[in-house]
Design a protein that fits this description.
Blueprint: H1 2-19, H2 23-35, H3 41-74, H4 91-105, H5 107-112, E1 117-121, H6 127-140, E2 145-149, H7 150-163, H8 167-175, E3 179-183, H9 194-209, E4 213-219, H10 223-230, H11 232-239, E5 243-246, H12 252-260
Parallel strand pairs: 1-4, 1-5, 2-3, 3-4
C-alpha cells in the first residue's frame, strides 16, 4: 500500500515538474518533492474527509443564500412562515397542515415523481403561508424554486406581445426549475384570456411532461370555479397527481380585523 502511494506521488511530482517552465523552479521543486515523506493512508483519508466537510459546508452556505434571496423577494411578511406556526384551530386546517407536513417530510420522493400542490379557496386563508413554509426545505435539498405571481406573469406576457420579444424565453424560464411556485395565476375578476390560457398551457404542459412539480395557490371558492377561470386543460395538468387541498376555512385577515376592530367601515 505505501509503495503504491509513493509511486503515485512520484508520478504527480513528475507531471507537476513538467508544467514548470523555469529551470531553477523545476530544480527546487524536485529537491522539495524528493525530501517529502509520502502521505500515509491515514493522512490521505483525513485530508479527503476534510475536503468533503469543506465542500459540504460550502454547498450548505450556497443553499442558505438562495433561500434568503428567495425570502427577500417574497417580502418580510413571509420570511418566518412555518407549518408549525400556522393556525390549526379548526379541523380542516389541522388536516391540511398534517398533509403538508407529510409532503415536506417526503419531499425528495415527491419532487422526483413530479407531485405538485394545489391550494385553493377564499382569499386570506393562508395559502401562501403554507406554500412558503415548504420552500426552505426544497432549497435545503438542493432544489431550485422559482416564485411567479400571476399578475406579474400576465403583465410580462402583454409586454412581450407589444415588444415582439420571444415568448419561448418566458416559457423556458418557468418550465425548467425543480419547483415552480405559482401564486394566484388567475385575474382578480373573470377568466384567463385565450392568449393567457394558451401561454399557461405551454408552461404547465412543459412541466407536466418533464415531471416537474408545480405548487399553486389560487383564490377561488371551489374546484369548478378554478376550471372555469383557468381552463380545464390547464387545471387537469396542474392537479393530476398533485396534493390538492380546499382551504375553505375563515379568512385570517377578516378574523384579525374583526378582533382588533381595524379595517372596519
Amino acid at each position: 500500500m505505501i509503495a503504491e502511494l509513493e509511486r503515485k506521488q512520484r508520478a504527480v511530482a513528475t507531471e507537476s515538474a513538467e508544467l514548470i517552465g523555469d529551470i531553477a523552479h523545476r530544480r527546487t521543486f524536485w529537491i522539495l518533492s524528493g525530501a517529502m515523506d509520502p502521505l500515509t493512508a491515514e493522512q490521505i483519508a483525513k485530508r479527503d474527509a476534510e475536503n468533503v466537510e469543506r465542500e459540504l459546508a460550502r454547498e450548505m452556505r450556497a443553499r442558505a443564500e438562495l433561500w434568503l434571496s428567495f425570502a427577500s423577494g417574497r417580502g418580510s411578511r413571509y420570511a418566518d412562515c412555518r407549518l408549525e406556526t400556522f393556525d390549526t384551530s379548526s379541523p380542516k386546517q389541522a388536516v391540511a397542515v398534517k398533509a403538508l407536513k407529510e409532503y415536506r417530510d417526503t419531499m425528495a420522493d415527491r419532487l422526483a415523481d413530479g407531485e405538485g400542490i394545489v391550494l385553493f379557496g377564499p382569499k386570506g386563508t393562508g395559502k401562501d403561508h403554507l406554500l412558503v413554509s415548504l420552500c426552505p426545505v426544497a432549497f435545503a435539498r438542493g432544489k431550485r424554486v422559482v416564485w411567479q405571481n400571476g399578475m406579474d406573469l400576465f403583465g410580462e406576457m402583454r409586454d412581450r406581445m407589444d415588444s415582439g420579444e420571444s415568448e419561448r424565453a418566458l416559457v423556458s424560464r418557468l418550465v425548467y426549475p425543480d419547483v415552480l411556485y405559482l401564486s394566484d395565476p388567475v385575474p382578480p375578476i373573470g377568466s384567463l384570456t385565450e392568449f393567457q390560457a394558451s401561454m399557461m398551457f405551454r408552461i404547465l404542459d412543459g412541466r407536466y411532461s418533464r415531471k416537474k412539480a408545480t405548487w399553486c395557490s389560487v383564490n377561488v371558492s371551489k374546484g369548478s370555479e378554478l376550471e372555469e377561470r383557468m381552463g380545464p386543460q390547464n387545471v387537469d395538468r396542474l392537479r393530476d397527481g398533485a396534493l390538492s387541498i380546499h382551504c375553505d376555512w375563515p379568512s385570517y385577515r377578516a378574523v384579525a380585523k374583526h378582533v382588533t376592530g381595524k379595517g372596519q367601515a
